[in-house]
Amino acid sequence: MANPRKQEAENSPPIRLTRADELRQILADEIVRGKIAPGATLDETAVAARFHVSRTPVREAIRQLAASGLVDARPHRAAIVAQPGHEVLIGMFEAMAELEGLCAYYAAERMTAEERKGLEQVHEELRLLIREGDPQNYHETNQLFHGTVYSGSHNVYLAELTTSTRIRVQPFRRAQFRNLGRLAKSHEEHDTVVVAILRADAVAAQKAMRAHIMTVFDEYEAYLRSLAADAS
Known about the structure:
Layout: H1 4-11, H2 19-32, E1 41-42, H3 44-51, H4 55-67, E2 71-74, E3 77-81, H5 86-110, H6 113-132, H7 135-152, H8 156-175, H9 182-198, H10 202-231
Antiparallel strand pairs: 1-3, 2-3
Helix pairs in contact: 2-4, 2-8, 3-4, 5-7, 5-8, 5-9, 5-10, 6-7, 6-9, 7-8, 9-10
């Protein structure tokens, strides 16, 4: 009899970077770095003209930015650039830490031998990318790493919920990779998660993943402080 959990994992949609995702990343970077200042407007027509695209991916990108709290979207009016406050951000990361921790817990219990090998391979890819020092390449492979843990939980609903939450916090997770030495530290944190999953130690995997996500939040705040110091 086929394993229903394995079938669920195989049926999970792969992570794809759409044009809207690309626009969201660019605009999010510019907002986080202060290139687009708080209070500035994001007019769909102007953004579409700038990137030579239709308004459809722009509208979706702005919707995703609004979900992250980076912009305030208003009906029939241009979106306004905002910045989520500390309490809002920490709430988002706390929820993210619990969801990812639960994924890691189940992954440690349920991952097949083949899936564990796949997790090790992605982990090794990230190690090699550290030498390049390219935050964007690391970020993209990092998404694959976390996605592998989500699918390894063999709980499609949990994986989808975690992925949707990740989309909301992604601009802040991505920004922290610009901190000096962050790529290597991130890989060390991943290593603790991977070792626990390979040992089928669910409790340790959950704890390590929770700690990793909250460290990401701390690193993002450190990144903001460095921007403020540079500006002054």
